[in-house]
Design a protein that fits this description.
Length: 159
């Protein structure tokens, strides 16, 4: 935060007043990068229904785990990153990702390409938890992140 304040030619108090906290700023940056990636993947997905949902989410996972900045930050502050991403409530990243997943699911339901046997909010939450577990797999199990594995599970769940 000190470096950023110097770069912006403001004092740290002003910077904290603008952004709230370092964690909040990191969360906003992470969500912004994820959301842009997810939107691009939704546009690129060529399937319909469950396949479109799986392609978009898998593509976003791949985008996250191959981003050098993300990998560096995760290696430096993995626990903080996981905490920020799973934080709920106002300004939390998790509720916004669930909402984005829900919106994608709702689009496919409205088009008649998907009819899930459960509530869209519950399904979106489950898709997020699977996604997260494959993104943070190294921190959880020691195995490398794996977008392909996540895609296989997402497809099974969405069938």
């Amino acid at each position: 935060m000190s470096t950023m304040a110097r770069e912006l030619e403001i004092n740290r108090v002003t910077l904290y007043r603008w952004v709230g906290s370092r964690e909040r700023l990191l969360g906003e940056v992470m969500f912004s990068l994820w959301h842009r990636t997810f939107e691009k993947e939704c546009e690129r997905a060529s399937g319909v229904g469950a396949e479109r949902v799986a392609q978009a989410i898998t593509g976003a996972i791949e985008g996250v785990i191959t981003n050098p900045g993300w990998a560096r930050q995760l290696a430096r502050e993995g626990e903080l990153i996981m905490r920020l991403l799973t934080r709920s409530g106002a300004g939390g990243i998790q509720p916004r990702i669930i909402a984005a997943y829900r919106d994608l699911l709702a689009e496919e339901v409205e088009r008649g390409h998907l009819s899930p046997p459960t509530d869209l909010d519950e399904l979106a939450y489950g898709l997020l938890r699977i996604s997260e577990s494959y993104v943070y797999r190294e921190l959880i199990t020691g195995d490398p992140p794996d977008a392909t594995g996540a895609g296989r599970l997402l497809r099974l769940l969405l069938r």
